[in-house]
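Task card 7
Instruction: Convert sequence to structure tokens.
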Amino acid sequence: MSRLNINNLTNENEDGSPRISGISTFSSTAFLEAPKGTTAQRPENVAPGMIRFNTDSGHLEYYTGEFWDEVLVANNTLDGGNRGIFAGAYAPGRSDTIEYVTISTLGNSLDFGNLVGGTTGGGAGTSDRTRGWHLGGNPSSYTNQMQFITIASTGNSTDAGDLSTTAGTHPGAVSSSTRGIIAGGLNPAYLSVIQYHTIQSTGGSVTFGDLSAPRRNVSGVMSSTRGVFCGGKEPGSPAIEVDTLEFITMSTLGDAISFGELSLEDRSQMGSCSNSTRGILAGGRTPADTSHIEFLTIATTGNSQDFGDLVQTGLDGDVGAVSSPTRAVISGGVSNVIAYVTIASTGDSTDFGDLTQNSSASQEPACISNGHGGL
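Output:
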């Protein structure tokens, strides 16, 4: 084996490194410096397998042949680094910001990118382990737009496909490892339609079935087989909060079936998330803001049960929620506070950190994670 001792090696133009072919071994107690730069400085015409350090995310990333993905960031074992993403905001001013947290840690959110459709709020989030979707919303008028992100990376969303029915704002959402499903919404009429899309496809949605009544501000929790749509508002003057719980089997098609009722009060606009067995419903409106947390067992039917309370100031109405297999992280409402609870237990919330991009508030974001109960 030959040995080459050098201090610096560049190509003839001094604008990159030469390509070394064959079998090469690097042995040192020092370090190997990778090319580095911001997300905006990612090179074009890149071959699959190329590696660089992203100074925005603070992670190594590699080119898959289709997109830049992060190295050893999305670890989907039990509470092992799942990522939660909050996209858009409805109030106090509509926002196109996307920000993320690592669910197993504590700390403030970090910037992810921006929605390509402009400022919006009240959209729905669906996801599998690698891809997340922002569906619908109300940037200035009701939209049927579908846009996706790669969860393990950072960057702006990509526009792809359209909803078959303009759900506009406030549909409920559940996901399996293959399907994203949204139910109800406002466009500006109240909707009962349930529609689904294939998460790894860039096509539009198709009809799944219907809720038992037109409803908006619905919340969703799920296991790998079942999605449960919880609470919401039905038409009235003013709109009527309801205690309805209905479920679907996500791999089939059909109308929602009665599951039970919310145990504490009629509620809408709850932050909702789940692991594979238990769904968490936090905050919301009654019509006044509430700090209550409830849970339900997804595999059974029956009423939800009291879990505890959101004890952080301003964390009540219109919150968002994301989950790993062990932890639920709740954000937004009428403050920039982030809190969490341990899903398998009961009790009040604990401080997690703060939203840093939507610093004044982040009401009704679309919520995405790569560790939710549908996976």
